[in-house]
Design a protein that fits this description.
Rossmann fold; binds zinc ion; 9-stranded mixed sheet; binds adenosine-5'-diphosphate; 21 strands; GMP Synthetase, Chain A, domain 3; 436 residues; alpha/beta; 12 helices; 4-stranded antiparallel sheet; 24% strand
Length: 436
C-alpha cells in the first residue's frame, strides 16, 4: 500500500520541478525572515532569485549543528512566535540540545510523512500500534504518535520505561505494531522472556525501528525474538523528526520524503557534492518547513543515495542504512573505527548477546581499544563446564575483530546481564582519551 501515490510515485521530472519551485520559495522565505541566512547569502553575493532550479542548491551555504547552537534558542526560527504550536529539542546525543519550533502546517506535513512510513510497512487502520519512543522533547514519541493517528490506526502511547506493564499490554491488547529504538526492542524481548511470555502469545507483526544505527544482524535478532518484521525509520529533529525516510517491503534502502526533504551527499572533508551512489555525509534542505527551515543541513550521518524506481512502485531516492555519524567515528591509532563494525561482528557470533561496549583509552601515547561483550546465558552455562572454552572464545572474537577493524582490540567477555541496558538511544562508546 502507498499512502500518497501522487507524491511517492511522481515522475523524476515532475519531482525535480516541484523541488526547484519549493527551493526558490524557501530560500526567499529564510532570506527575508532569518538574519543568519541573509548574512550568509549576502557574504556570497547571492540573492534568492539566483536559485531557480533544484540544481542551483549547490550555490547555497551549508548549515551545521554549531550554527544551531550558536543561535540558541530561536535564532534560526523563521516563523513568528505566534505561529509556533510546538517546540522539540534534539536529544543532545552529541552535545547541547538544539531547539526546533513547528507551525501547525509543519505538524500536518510531519504527520503526513509519518503516515507514508507506516503505510509502507504495511500498517493499516486495523492495527494497534504502540509508540515506545520517548515522549517529551525528543521528536520520536509525539512524531510517531501523530502519524499513527493521522493514518487511522490505533495508537497506544506507551513511551519508554515500565517495560513489564508494556509487555503485558502488548499481549492483552493484541498490539500488532511497535515503534521504538532497536535497543529498546531487544530490552523488551528480554523482559518478555523473563516474564515467561512466549512470542506466540503476542500478535506483534510490524516494528518501526530507528533513532540510532542498527545492523542487519540486529534486525534478525529482533525479528526472531519478537516474531515481527522490522523496518527502518530514519529522521532527525533539525529536519523534522522520525519520517524523513522509511523502508518499504523491498527493504533495499529507505525512501526519502523528497518533496519535503531534499538530500545530497557530500565529502565531509572537502564539502564537495558527491555523485549518487557514493558514500559520504548526508545533507538535507527542508523544502516546505515554516517554523525552522534548514538549508543544506549537515547531518553528520554517513550513507549513500540510490536512484531508480523501486519494485514497490515508489520513485523517490533511497538512502542506504547509516554506517555511523562522522562525529561517532573513532580514530584509533589512525584508523577509522565505527561502533557498527563491532556490532556486526558480535552479532554474527551465536555465543554473544547483542550487548557490547567500546572503551578507548591512551596508554603510553598509544591508543587502546577494549571491546566488552556479553556472553549469552545458554552459552555461558555450557562454557563454564569446559576448561579453556572462554579463552578460546575470547581469541576467536579478537581475531574476527582484527580482520574487520584492521586494528587489534582487547576483548573482555562479560557474564550475562552485566552490560547496562538502554531504553532510548544506546551509548556504546566510552572514549577516555577526551577527558584526559
Ligand atoms: P541528536 O541525536 O543529535 O540529539 P536526534 O535526536 O534528532 O538528534 O537524532 C537524530 C539522529 O539519530 C540522526 O542524525 C541519526 O544519526 C540517528 N538516527 C535516527 N534514525 C536513524 C536510523 N534509522 N538509523 C541510523 N541512525 C538514525
Ligand atoms: Zn520501495
Amino acid at each position: 500500500m502507498i499512502w500518497n501515490r501522487n507524491k511517492e510515485c511522481m515522475s523524476r521530472d515532475e519531482m525535480s520541478a516541484l523541488q526547484g519551485k519549493r527551493l526558490h520559495k524557501v530560500v526567499s522565505y529564510v532570506y527575508h525572515n532569518v538574519p543568519f541566512y541573509r548574512d550568509k547569502m549576502q557574504q556570497l553575493g547571492m540573492i534568492p532569485d539566483d536559485i531557480q532550479t533544484i540544481e542551483d542548491i549547490t550555490k547555497l551555504p551549508f548549515t551545521t549543528k554549531k550554527d544551531l547552537r550558536d543561535n540558541y534558542p530561536f535564532g534560526l526560527q523563521a516563523a513568528p512566535q505566534s505561529e509556533i504550536v510546538r517546540i522539540h529539542a534534539s536529544s543532545g546525543t552529541t552535545g547541547n540540545a538544539t531547539i526546533v519550533g513547528y507551525t501547525r502546517k509543519d505538524i500536518a506535513i510531519w504527520s503526513e510523512c509519518m503516515s507514508r512510513c507506516l503505510t509502507s510497512y504495511g500498517v493499516t487502520r486495523d492495527d494497534i500500534f504502540s509508540v515506545s519512543y520517548g515522549y517529551g522533547l525528543f521528536t520520536g514519541g509525539l512524531g510517531a504518535h501523530y502519524g499513527v493517528e493521522n493514518m487511522g490506526a490505533t495508537v497506544v502511547p506507551a513511551s519508554t520505561g515500565n517495560t513489564e506493564k508494556h509487555a503485558k499490554l502488548i499481549r492483552d491488547l493484541g498490539i500488532t505494531g511497535i515503534a521504538c529504538t532497536p535497543s529498546y526492542a531487544l530490552y523488551l524481548a528480554e523482559t518478555i522472556d523473563r516474564m515467561g511470555i512466549k512470542k506466540e502469545d503476542l500478535k506483534l507483526r510490524v516494528g518501526a525501528f530507528g533513532a540510532e544505527p542498527w545492523t542487519e544482524n540486529m534486525r534478525k535478532e529482533i525479528e526472531d525474538r519478537l516474531g515481527l518484521k522490522g523496518y527502518n525509520l530514519y529522521g532527525l529533529s533539525e529536519v523534522m523528526g522520525p519520517c524523513v525516510s522509511y523502508e518499504c517491503k523491498c527493504q533495499n534502502g529507505s525512501h526519502i520524503c523528497e518533496d519535503h526533504f531534499y538530500p545530497e551527499i557530500i565529502n565531509p572533508v572537502t564539502l564537495e557534492p558527491l555523485p549518487k551512489g557514493q558514500s559520504g555525509e548526508l545533507v538535507f534542505t527542508t523544502l516546505t518547513k515554516e517554523g525552522m527551515p534548514v538549508l543544506r543541513y549537515r547531518t553528520r550521518d554517513l550513507c549513500s543515495l540510490m536512484e531508480g524506481e523501486c519494485e514497490c512502485g515508489r520513485t523517490s531516492v533511497r538512502m542506504s542504512s547509516i554506517k555511523g555519524r562522522s562525529d561517532d567515528m573513532l580514530i584509533i591509532r589512525g584508523i577509522n573505527v565505527f561502533p557498527s563494525q563491532v556490532e556486526s561482528v558480535v552479532l554474527s557470533m551465536e555465543e554473544f548477546a547483542p550487548r557490547y561496549m567500546l572503551i578507548v583509552d591512551r596508554v603510553n601515547n598509544l591508543d587502546t581499544l577494549t571491546v566488552q561483550v556479553e556472553i549469552r546465558q545458554e552459552y555461558f552455562e555450557k562454557a563454564l563446564d569446559t576448561i579453556g572454552e572462554i579463552d578460546a572464545l575470547e581469541k576467536k572474537l579478537a581475531h574476527r575483530l582484527q580482520n574487520v577493524l584492521s586494528i587489534s582490540a582487547k576483548v573482555q567477555l562479560k557474564e550475562p546481564n552485566t552490560i547496562e541496558r538502554s531504553q532510548g538511544k544506546s551509548a556504546r562508546v566510552i572514549d577516555k582519551r577526551v577527558i584526559k
